[in-house]
Amino acid sequence: MAAINRTFDIPQSLNAKVPAERSGKGRDDVRLMVMNGEEVHHERFSSLPDFLEEGDLLIFNNSRTIPAVLKATAGNREVEIRLSRQLDDQRWEALIWGGLFSAGDELALKNGVKAEITGNGNEKPLVILSFSIGGVALMDYIYSFGEPIRYEYIDSDWTLDAYQTAYASVPGSVEMASAGRAFSWKMLQELKDKGIKTAFLTLHTGLSYYGNDRWPNPNKHPEAFHIPEETAKIINDVRRAKGRVIAVGTTVVRALETAADEKGCLRETNGITNLYIKKEYQLKAVDGLVTGLHEPEATHLEMLAAFTEEHHLFTAYRQALKKGYLWHEFGDMNLIFKERLQS
Q1: Could you give the dihedral angle defined by the CA atoms of residues 299, 93, 161 and 248, in that order, rounded to the nearest 10 degrees?
Q2: With the CA atoms of 27, 180, 301 and 213 taken in that order, what torsion angle do they form, in degrees rounded to the nearest 10?
Q3: Is the pTM of this model over 0.90?
Q4: Beta pairing partners, 63
């Protein structure tokens, strides 16, 4: 078999810069690429119910995005704090833009709030910040003075609601669990009417990019999650009935596969996942995935190789490039079903 070409370039013109609803469309009026083995279909996201069957189950991440960018000063320098992961009531792992810092350095924020660097984070370049306030007061402060994380391909300062899914309810993610963004309330009702089940878990996302062509180490990227008892029961019931469990987002895959036993059964779980899923991984709990389109450097793309043969994956991605699919959190979507992979 010929070698698989895993490299591709995303033209600047294919970076989605505007939320669909800000250009007069509905959230579900983005495009959808459906992959089932060698079959590839190019549709609108509004057609998603047509590719699902009665008895299928969609699992959503209901984590709500917080405004995770805070402005601060260090001496005479202005710096930017990008929160990544909450450690306790007062401490966060964070990325600091604007200089080099070490333990003991103190940052001054608005309204007299201070943040001291108390050590290194789980991996470079993250640090641990201890704020002078904590608990509800700190979360209120973040909502009062924080801004959403916006990467360089986004030209405009969209408000926080642009970075939320319709059903988000548990604050804690620093970036949107964006695979669910295209789901409108209308589509959720259509899914229900067709007999497609839905359930929710919570996984709070950390930073996915550290700037200057640096990405998190997939083996050192802990994220907190909670699978409710009700969700675990629904999943187990659907699997016993031979229905399909479709994860909405790579975050859902990580949580479910971390918590599942060898037979794919779930129970209520609170935990931290460091799971790194790539092509050799044998999926236990998930039969399909709704996700966005991923950059060649992203570890999420490696996760997709656990669902389908690599040559199928990269052939489909090249079709998406030729057809002008849009990338990133405001972009187009992909539904991929698990196929039997060759050893």
Answers
A1: 30
A2: 80
A3: yes
A4: 170
